[in-house]
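Ticket opened by: R.M.
Priority: normal
Category: complex prediction / small molecule

The reporter submitted a protein together with manganese (II) ion and asked that the result be attached to this ticket for the collaborator who will pick it up next week. Submitted input follows.
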Amino acid sequence: MFTLIELPYAPAALEPVISAQTLSFHHGKHLQTYVDNLNKLLSGSEFERLSLEEIVCKAPAGPVFNNAGQILNHNLYFTQFGPYTQAANAPEGPLAEQIRKQWGSFDTFKTEFESKGVGLFGSGWVWLSAQADGSLVITQEPNAGNPLAKGLKPLLTFDVWEHAYYLDCQNRRAAHLAALWQIVNWREVKARYL
Ligand code: MN
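Result attached by the on-call engineer:
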């Protein structure tokens, strides 16, 4: 049985970037539904005792993959954020160095990441992941996709499903993605990289 993760911050902590109302629907309704759906689907199935990561790598396209993928993606998404800050918010250490090495600057990296999110047609996720040699890659995944299934280590993700931003930004996906940097908890993302 999978359960809904608890958020590591207060419901209004991400405002004004993500409102408490959006969080209550996104975490409390959308993610809860994926958890409930997967538990029903897994009952008596060959995937019943596997972890989310194992299911995402082994399940064929279909309801089990979709619901497990969405739970894993949202768990990584919600736990990568921290309280809103108006201060500069950027990674430090080896992850920051690798970003500078590959993109030249943090700002250039952010621009490419946002543009991959804006350019993803329909619903899905944009990801920063690490390869085995420590190099980084930005990828787009449609629907419930997770880079883990391609052998990558997922570090950071922006959800571009409309349910992630429609209450706060309506159709303005680009504005939503640009604002998300202010609530990224880079200590968490860095911990995933090392
Ligand atoms: Mn979502």
